[in-house]
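# step 3/5: fold
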Amino acid sequence: MDNNTNWWTRPCGGVDVLRQAIPLIISFGSTSLMNFTDRMFLMWLQDDSMTASWHGGMLLWSAVAIPVAIGAFVTTFVAQYHGSNNDHRIGKIVWQGIWFGLFMFPIFLLLYEPLAKVFVWFGHDGQLLELERSYFFYMLFGASAVVCGEAAASFFRGQGKMHIELYNNVFCVALNILLTYCLVFGQFGFPEWKLAGAAIASVFCLWLRFFIYTALIFYSDRKTQRFQVAGGTRFDFTLMRRLLYFGLPAGLYVSIDTLTFTAFVLLIGGIGQAERDASTIAFTLNSLTYIPLTGIGIVVSSMVGNQLGNNRPDLARRATVTALIIGCLYSGCFGLAFIIFPDLFLLPFAVAGWSAELQDMSVLLIRFVALYLFFDTCAVICMSTLRGAGDTMFIAWMVGILAPLLPIFCALGIYGFGFGIVWCWIVLTFVVIAYFLAFAIRYRSKVWESMRVVEQELL
C-alpha cells in the first residue's frame, strides 16, 4: 500500500503522531499521577489541606499564566525555525525565554501580599484560609522555574524530541511524589511539614527539571554547535520583542482562562465543604485525561509549526486530524470508565469520616467530567493547531469572550437564584462545548494555514 494513503505510515499519520505523542502522554500522565497522589496524601491529613492545595495552586497559575504561556510559546518558534532549516536561530530564542523567566522571579514574589487577599474576597476563613495562603506563598518560589522550564523544554519539543521530556518529567515527578510523602508525613528522617512540605517538594523538583533541561541543551550542541546554544546566551532585544509580540496574546488567553476558572473554583469553595471537596476530587480525576491531552496538544503545535515552516499546510491538517482521532479514543476510554466505575476512582480518597453525601456528589461530578470530555479533547487539539500557526490573537478573543461566562453565570445562579453545585457544573459543560465550536469553526476556515511567526526573510 502507498505510504501516502496508509493512515499509519503516511507522513503526519498515526505512527508519526504517536511516536511524538506517546512520550508526552506518559510524561504529562506522570504529572497527573503526581497531582493525584499529592492530593490523596493531603486528603489523609483529614483537614482542608487537599482543597487548600487546589485553591492555592489555581490562584498561583492564574497569577503566572501569562509568563508561563510566553515561555511555552518558544516551542512554536523552535518548530518553525527547525522546519525552515534555520536551526542556528534556535539557541537564541530558547535563551530569550529563559531570561524572561529569570527576570520574572522577583516580580512573582511581590504578588503574594495583594493576591493572598483573594481568598478572603471569596469568603474563605479559618483553617482553610491559612492553609491556602501558606501553600500559595511557598509555590511562588517555583513560578519562575516553570517559565524557564517551559522555554528550555521547547528546545526539544520544537524538534520533535519528545522522549527527552519524557525522561526528565518522569524522573522529577517520581522524586516529587517521594519527597511529598516524606515531607508531608515526616518519613525517613524528614521533618513533618504537612501542606507546606507538599509545596516545598514541588518547588524543588520544578527547579531541578529546569536545570536538567539546561544541561541537556548544552550537551546536545557541544560538538556541532548547530543550534548556537552557547553563542545565543546574550539578551537580544529584537528577538525578545518578537517573542512577546506573538507570546503575549497566548499568555493573555491562558491568563483569562485560568483566572475565570479559578474564580469558578473559589465560588464553589464558598458553597460548602462537601461541594468543594467533591469538586477537587472530580477535577483531580479530570486531570488524568486533560493533562495528557495537553501533551498531545504540544505535539500538534510542534508538528503544525514544522510543516508550516516547510510550507506544507496539507501535512499540518493531516497531523491535526490524526491527533483528533487518537485524542478522542484516549479520552473516550476514560469517559466510559468514569460512567461505569466511578466508585473505583474514589477509593484512594476514602478516609475515616468519608460521608455518603460526599460519595454521591463526587460520583455525580465525575459523570459530568465524562459528559464533556469529547468536546474538551477536540477543543484542545484544534486550539493547539491554531497556536502552532501563531493564530494566538483569535484564541485570545474567543477566550476573552467565553471564559468570563463561567464565573458570571455561576455567581448569578448561586447568589441570585440559590442554585447549587449542579448548576455550576452545567454551566461548565456548556462553556466547554462553546470552546469546541469556536475553535473547530476557526480550524475549518483554514485562515491559520497562511500564518507564520518566524521572520519572512528566513522562509
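# step 4/5: annotate
Residues 14-449 form one domain.
# step 5/5: archive (pending)
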